[in-house]
Design goal:
The chain is an alpha/beta fold. It is built from 18 helices and 15 strands. The strands form four sheets. Strands 1-2-4-3-5 form a five-stranded mixed β-sheet. Strands 7-6-11-12-13 form a five-stranded parallel β-sheet, with helices on both faces. The protein has a three-stranded antiparallel β-sheet with strand order 8-9-10, with helices on one face. Helix 10 links the parallel strand 6 and strand 7. Helix 10 runs antiparallel to helix 11. The longest helix is centred in the last third of the chain and has 25 residues. The radius of gyration is 21 Å and the shape is globular.
């Protein structure tokens, strides 16, 4: 049995109740086989795979808070600090009813490699709670965030662990958490990213993940002599990532015709109106039915069930999954291939199932996973950390320029790694393997240099 197979067997036994984590570990280790096989004796002697698949620590805690009716509510909070070989733990806080330890572990594991790819000195971690911010008043959100941070503040710091936003955690939530951290610790430091501009936030952070996705997609297409201008894009999601991916795609000359939320999806053949979408989602915090009501060209489709991913049934050149994990399955992949899709680049974390990924790659679709494609958000968070440390604020153009350079470098690095290990699939470079190898090599070299720790 190979070293990879030995470790996978152990990980599966230890984490049998965590399917998302097992999916992430399996995908990474399988794609790392060429790299690991070439260094098997060294890595096995130092138990590299055992160490890199086991978090440094897993924190789980009670979060009590009082709702507007005076009723005490209790949620469960999490923080998984996965690996800090190359820098402080860094990763978002997800607030969603689906959150559990397995999901946080999968996200933290992915974050290790994503953060490594940014070329910046940040390790990997993730956190969150099964709290649902939807339908809650601002006062209830504040009560939860303050209680959550009262416990979390014991384990984080500017040089220890720097959380950020994620699903359900936007500027409002970050503000409440930062205020509570400052109140308890008596310190004003860059302990959270995604902060408001008046208290240490960075310009372009809001746009970063979506913009970065398109910068990498454009670099991918250019490398294959394809012009993004004039291409039709199918986008899932209607949150921060999707909105700014659509905006940047339009700036680059492409046209995005779909978006979605948890209750339905929009098809707008004239192209999604970004200003209207921002009004509906960022200002009104409303459903896409309001977009359709205000836009005559838009067709609204109610979601029939959890597996209804109608956005992928629309004919498109570029697919940009920007919602959540496992939202693009094998049937969706078959529809995309039948409709002639050129590329799939992930704006969300692990939105494509393993079966769908394999099908897309084997059918010649250019595929780049989220560890590389959506790294723009955390990269700009690291740039926010740099500005906080220097007590400086850079212009939007400065940050955006650095982001573009980082995403183009990420593409160059994952392409190079795939070529070095002759990783190909479906006649193209295997960018999933390239991303995992490039991210892995940097972390492993740091681990080896630092001894057994």
């Amino acid at each position: 049995m190979s070293y990879v197979d030995e470790v996978l067997e152990v990980v599966r036994k230890k984490n049998a109740d965590q399917p998302e984590f097992l999916q992430a570990v399996t995908e990474v280790l399988e794609s790392l086989r060429p790299c690991i096989d070439a260094n098997e004796e060294l890595y096995k002697k130092n138990a590299i795979l055992e160490r890199i698949t086991e978090p440094d620590r897993q924190l789980m805690f009670r979060v009590p808070w009082v709702d507007d009716n005076g009723q005490v509510q209790v949620n469960r909070g999490f923080r998984v600090q996965f690996n800090n070989a190359i820098g402080p733990y860094k990763g978002g806080l997800r607030l969603h009813p689906s959150v559990n330890l397995g999901i946080i572990k999968f996200l933290g594991f992915e974050q290790v490699f994503k953060n490594s790819l940014t070329t910046l000195p940040i390790g990997g971690g993730k956190g969150g709670s099964d709290f649902d911010p939807k339908g809650k008043s601002d006062r209830e959100i504040m009560a939860f965030c303050q209680s959550f941070m009262t416990e979390l503040c014991k384990y984080i710091g500017a040089d220890v662990d720097v959380p950020a936003g994620d699903i359900g955690t936007g500027a409002r939530e970050i503000g409440f958490m930062f205020g509570q951290y400052k109140r308890i610790r008596g310190m004003f430091e860059g302990v959270l990213t995604g902060k408001g501009l008046t208290y240490g936030g960075s310009l372009a952070r809001t746009e970063a993940t979506g913009y970065g996705l398109l910068y990498l997609t454009n670099a991918l297409l250019k490398d294959h002599d394809i012009d993004i201008a004039g291409k039709t894009c199918a986008v899932s999601g209607a949150g921060n990532v999707a909105i700014y991916a659509i905006q940047k795609a339009h700036q680059l000359g492409a046209k995005c015709v779909t978006c979605s939320d948890s209750t339905g999806w929009i098809y707008d053949p004239e192209g999604i109106d970004v200003d209207l979408l921002k009004e509906v989602k960022e200002v009104k915090r409303a459903r896409l039915t309001e977009y359709a009501a205000a836009r005559p060209s838009a067709q609204y489709h109610e979601k029939k069930n959890a597996d209804d991913h109608g956005v992928w049934s629309v004919k498109c050149d570029l697919a940009l999954p920007c919602a959540t994990q496992n939202e693009l399955n094998l049937d969706d992949a078959k529809m995309l291939v039948a409709n002639g899709v050129i590329s799939v680049t992930e704006g969300a974390n692990m939105p494509t199932t393993l079966e769908a990924t394999k099908y897309l790659q084997e059918n010649g679709v250019l595929f780049v996973g989220g560890k590389a494609a959506n790294a723009g958000g955390v990269a700009t968070s690291a740039l926010e950390m740099s500005q906080n440390s220097e007590r400086l604020s850079w212009t939007f153009e400065e940050v955006d320029g650095k982001l573009k350079g980082i995403m183009e470098t990420i593409y160059a690095n994952i392409s190079d790694a795939a070529k070095r290990y002759n990783a190909t699939v479906g006649g193209n470079a295997d960018y999933v393997a390239g991303a995992n190898i490039a991210g892995f090599e940097k972390v492993v070299n740091a681990m080896l240099a630092q001894g057994v720790c």
